[in-house]
Amino acid sequence: MNVTSPEHPTNKMLERIFRKALSPFEKFIQWESASGLMLMAAAVIAMVLANSALAHSFHHLWETPLSLSVGDWTLQKSLHHWINDGLMALFFFLVGLEIKNEIMAGDLATPRQAALPMIAALGGMVVPAALFYAVNQGGEFAVGWGIPMATDIAFAVGVMTLLGSRVPKALLMFLVALAIVDDLGAVVVIALFYTENLQTDALLVASGLLAIMALLNAANVRSPTPYLILGVLLWYAVLQSGVHATVAGVLTAFMIPTTSRHTQAGFSQHVRQLMDRFDQDGQNGAFGQSILKNKPQLHLLETLQSGLHAIQPPLVRLEYIFAMPVAFIIVPLFALANAGVAVQLGDLATIFGHPVVVGIMLGLVIGKPLGITTFSWLAVRSGLARLPDGVHMGHIFGAGLIAGIGFTMSIFIGQLSFGSNPHVLDLAKTAILSASVLAALIGAAWFILTSPAPKASAQT
After folding, report:
1. Does residue 102 belong to any structural domain of this protein?
2. Same domain, yes or no: 103 and 189
3. List of residues 6+ apart from 33 with CB closer than 8 A
4. pLDDT confidence bin for 143, thresholds 50/70/90
5. Which has more confidence, 286 or 172?
6. What is the pLDDT at residue 61?
7. I want to staple 69 with a disulfide (CB 3.0 to 4.6 A). Which of 57, 74, 106, 433 is the partner?
8. What's the longest Cα–Cα distance across the chain?
C-alpha cells in the first residue's frame, strides 16, 4: 500500500489547514472586524455624496417607492423604509441569534460569567441616557434619551482588533458580551418606548405566531424553514401592530431551536464508520493519491459534509448563514441610507451647542466609560462579579471608551426619535458620527499609552 509519509508536503499542507480552524468566537471577531471596516467605508461614502453635487439625487434615491404585491394585497414603502424596517429586521434577527447563543453556551451562560458584562452594560446604558435626559430635560428633544445607550459591536471590535496584543483576549470577550447585552437592552427600549399607537388585533396575531413557534419547539421540529416562514408573517404582524417591525427579528431568533436531533455518541459512531470506509477505499495504491481520483472517497466526503451540517443546531446554522450578508450587505447599506448628513461648516458653535448634540456626545464619550467603569467597579467590589484573568480596571475603562462608538443602533434609535424632524435628525446623526470617531480615537490612545505592546522575546 502506497501510504504517504508524515513528512509528505500534502500532509504538511493539511496540517496547516486544520491548524487554521477558528473557534466560533474567533470567526465572530474576524467577521465583525471586517464588517466594521465596511461600515466605516459606507459611512464615508454617504457623507461624501451628501455633501457633493450629487446630494439631491442621493437623497431622492432613498425615497424611491417600492411595493410588494400578492393578489389584491400590496405593501408599499420607500427604499429607505424597506431598509430600516425590512432588511434591518434581519440584522436584529442575527442580533437575537447571537444573544441566545451567548445565553445558552457563551459568556452569558452562567450567572458567574454573565455578571460582569451584564452589570457593566447596565451602567453603559443608564448613565448615558441619564446625561442626555439631564441636558434635554423637559424639552421637546428629551425623547432621544435612548440614542447614546447603544454600542456598535462591529466598530468597537474592529478598533480593539487593530490594537492587537495591547488588548487582552479576555477583555475583547468582555466587550463582545457587554455589546450583546447592550443590544438586548436597545431592543427592549425600542419595543417599550419607541412605538406608535398599538393595534390590539395585530398584537394578538403576533402572539399567536409566537405560540405556534413555541409548539414547534415542543414537537422537536428542528428544520429552520417553518420558523423562518412564521418569522416573515410575524414581521408583518408586528409592522401592523405599532411596535417597530425589527423587534420581530429578535423574537423569531429567540424561537430558533438550540439543540440538534442527533446525539453526540451517534454522530461520533457514524463518523468513525465513515472514516474506516474512507481508509479502506484508499487502499490498493489509491491511498496517498489525490482524493479527486477516487470517487468512493469523494462520495464519503460528501456524506461526511452532510452529517456535519445536520449535527449543528438550527441556531448555529442560521447564525453562520446570516452573518456574512448582514455584516457585508445589510449593515453597510443601512449606513449608506442613513449616515449621509450635509455638514454646515459655517456655524459649528451653534451645531455643537445644540442640546441634542451635547446630550449625545456627553452620553457616548463620557457616559459610556463612566457608567461601564463605575458599575464594573461596584460589581467587583461587592463580590457580585470578578474581573477576567489578566484584566484590570484600566482595561475596563479603555473598553468603556471604545464602547462609546454607537453608530448603527444609535442612528437607528435616532430615526425613531426624530424621524419626523429632519433638521434635528441631521443634528443627531452629526453628534453620533462625531462622538463615535472621538470615542474610537480616545479609546485607542488610552490603550497605546497605558498598555504597551509586549516585546517579542529575544532569539536564543
Report:
1. yes
2. yes
3. 154, 157, 158, 161, 162
4. very high
5. 172
6. 93
7. 74
8. 84
What pLDDT score does 86 carry?
92
Residue 283 lies inside a defined structural domain of this protein:
yes
Three cell numbers written together for 201: 388585533
**pLDDT at residue 408, rounded to an integer:** 86
Query: Is the distance from CB of 299 to CB of 243 less than 8 angstroms?
Result: no
Of the residues 275, 295, 311, the one at which a domain ends? 311
Q: Do 143 and 252 reside in the same domain of the chain?
A: yes
Same domain, 207 and 79: no
288 and 334 co-located in one domain: no
Quick: pLDDT tens for 87-112.
999 999 988 888 888 888 776 778 87
pLDDT digits (tens, 9 = 90+) for 251-270: 999 999 988 766 666 667 76
Q: Are residues 293 and 282 in the same domain?
A: yes
User: Residues 76, 141: one domain?
Assistant: yes
- Residue 6 located in a structural domain: no
206 & 187 share domain: no
How far apart, in whole angstroms, are the C-alpha atoms of residue 414 and residue 424? 9
Q: What is the DSSP letter of 285?
A: T
Query: Does residue 131 contact residue 125 with C-beta atoms inside 8 Å?
Result: no
Query: What grid cell was written down for 298?
Result: 469523494
Higher pLDDT, 426 or 108: 426
Full DSSP string of 405-452: --HHHHHHHHHHHHTT-HHHHHHHHHHHHHHHHHHHHHHHHHHHHHSP
C-alpha cell at 246: 425589527
Task: Give the pTM.
Answer: 0.79
- pLDDT over 90 (residue 158): no
Q: How many domains does the chain contain in total?
A: 3
459 assigned to some structural domain: no
With CA atoms as reference, report the closest residue to 77 among 215, 245, 193, 209: 245
Q: What is the mean pLDDT of the chain?
A: 84
Q: Give the three-state DSSP class for 70.
A: strand
For residue 238, give its domain range. Answer: 195-243
- What does the chain come to in residues? 460
CB 414 within 8 A of CB 144: yes
Among 59-73, 105-119, 203-217, the range scoring the smallest mean pLDDT is 105-119
Q: Are residues 208 and 94 part of one domain?
A: no
Which region holds residue 294: left if phi is over 0, alpha if psi is between -120 and 50, else beta?
beta
Question: Is residue 388 within 8 Å of 170, Cβ to Cβ?
Answer: yes
